[in-house]
Amino acid sequence: MAEPITWTVVAIEIGKGALAWVGTKVMEGLFGTRKPNYARLQAESIKQLAVVFQKALEAERLQEATDKLNSLVRNIENYNNAPLTSLFRLHDAANDSLDLLSTLASLGYPGLPSYLVAASVRITILQELHLVAGDQGELLNIILHIRDSIDECENSMAKAFQMFQGMSTSPTAIVDKWVASFNGEGIWGRTRASVLDQQRKLSEAFRKAQLDPNEALYEKVLKEWFGIREVTIERATLAGIEVPRALTVAPNFQSWILHTGTPLHETDNTFQFTFTDWNGDGRPDLVAIKKSKTGTKSTEVHILSGASNFQSWILQTGTPLHETDDTFQFMVTDWNGDGRPDLVAIKKSKTGTKSTEVHILSGASNFQSWILQTGTPLHETDDTFQFMVTDWNGDGRPDLVAIKMSKTGTNSTEVHVLSGASNFQSWILQTGTALHETDEQYQFIIADWKGRGRQDLVVVNKGKPGADSTEVYTLSGFSNYQNYTLKTKTGLHRTDGGFEFAMVNWNGTGNSDLVAIKKRVTGSNSTEVHILAG
């Protein structure tokens, strides 16, 4: 693995604006209304990136790649000295950039920082080729290259995190002590808990030094690539070019892994759905919360077994909670650490404490006894809020996440997190996000989407009238929801209030899958479950 200083150098230099130059200046030249000196813009962009890139390459001692970079820079310089007669130099530079990327891709994760910069250099060259040659096909090349670059980076990141997760061994009892290891380093302690604590600290330090700089750099570059891709797609459309769907969508959430009806009749707004592994068999089960018009005159819990593909009931029960309405939102989590999922009821308004309240029913009692009832520092809330629970800060306690969709102080969708360790009395995050203000067209999910130990914000855009698909965006927990890591249409048509969404790891891969619950107007005359592979 590359030395951390390599990543630090690249991240600092790009942070100074090298990539921003490509993301703004070059795009102004290509699609803006001003008429700058294009050749000079491109030359400065590439040279500035090349300086950063050179530092990374020298640090990693990649002589072969360094030679290709030098050839690329020479071709660009020659082209800019005589752009009208040296177009072939630009084509040679394009070939150099492709060779360079192939070399860096073969290095896997250690070459990732350099690959990110080299891919951005190639985007710049392709933009210049389109500009000077007038070949509209270069627009498709730009979009194709961005897609391929994202795929390559995602593969490298996934392998790195898989390696990282395999660095820890499980604690083992030997005579009067416990032993484990991290990254080959032995750990000893008198108790299992003490060994796990040492292992956690070593893991966090390693991640901070070795993985976080790359993740931060990738997110910064990805933001620029998304912007360039969106403008290029718009430009291609205006030019009358049909952009293949494969170039405009991510590979995520395009293919179905389950379509099924269930024994549950079609449902309406008196039902809310969520998922949990209720019976501990390792499969996500479907939890249907029946809020009103119930046979027991209480809020009811009905659970369909995931192991049966949601064909058999494993729990149907009333609760001590009276029938409820749209001032309540429900979710399931193991609140008290007993290994059983508990039912969390968020009372948003018309509360005794004049605040948003949290009420939790014990899963161990089949939801018959209360284990927490409390007000919070959050005022009473309305339909501009959505709620969910997750262990946001990694302390082992579920925290309460409040998504404020509109009428916000930041003019963006906001994320506010109350600490579970404080029984929801203290804030641990309050932030605006990269997403504009939103409405009922959007549903929010908190999930460790890529299995990297970060709680990302998954945004499901059901679509305005006329939209051709439901879209999914993810905002990274690593950036406190300031950076997108995914923007894509899905394999699902535009949806409406008859759908609810969730994330589960249905097929056992690293990424979470997207579940669409179709509540009514279904072909099977039942509530249906449809799952798109993550």
Automatic annotation (TrEMBL):
Keyword terms of this UniProt record: Coiled coil, Signal
Coiled-coil regions listed: 55-82
InterPro entries xrefs: FG-GAP, Integrin_alpha_N, Pest_crys_N_sf
GO-annotated molecular function: toxin activity
Top-level taxon of the source organism: Eukaryota
Keyword Membrane: no
PANTHER family according to UniProt: MAM DOMAIN-CONTAINING PROTEIN, SENSOR KINASE-RELATED
Protein name as it appears in the record: VCBS repeat-containing protein
Organism: Fusarium oxysporum f. sp. narcissi
